[in-house]
Design brief:
Shape: rod-shaped
Largest sheet: 4 strands, antiparallel
Number of strands: 7
Strand content: 25-35%
Order of helices and strands: HEEEEEEE
Distance between the termini: 78 Å
Length: about 130
């Protein structure tokens, strides 16, 4: 700047470059935060699915009459888990995940929902979910 208060073209250009860099850094940080939230949500739902698969495999490995109570926790999105003969499928927020389980003898396919408690039991060689 000179004595009369005018800004030189170099100073304006420098301010513009600094603002451009700051804006791009903010955009990059925001996209990283959203990506981290997405990864965390996917990981949490995957843990729920893995824990349920472990419970079903434990009940299936034990004899008739063995049962295990399972509480499906509430997360930021409600979800639905479908139990089939050899896999579990979780659906939430337009996303879908699957995990393979040991082939089990089940009476039918089940749909399990978040924030509910279920009893997984082995009756007459078949897995029943109540």
């Amino acid at each position: 700047m000179n004595e009369k208060g005018f800004i030189s073209i170099e100073a304006i250009f420098s301010i513009f470059i600094i603002l451009l860099i700051a804006t791009s850094l903010l955009f990059y940080a925001q996209s990283n935060l959203e990506s981290n939230k997405n990864i965390e949500s996917t990981f949490n739902h995957r843990l729920i699915l893995d824990n349920l698969a472990n419970c079903i495999n434990q009940v299936n490995s034990n004899g008739d009459g063995f049962s295990k109570k399972v509480l499906l926790p509430q997360k930021e999105y409600s979800y639905k888990i479908t139990v089939e003969k050899s896999k579990l499928t979780i659906e939430y927020s337009n996303k879908k995940g699957e995990v393979a389980i040991l082939p089990i003898d089940i009476s039918r396919n089940y749909e399990l929902y978040s924030e509910r408690t279920y009893l997984i039991e082995k009756q007459d060689g078949k897995i029943v979910i109540i």
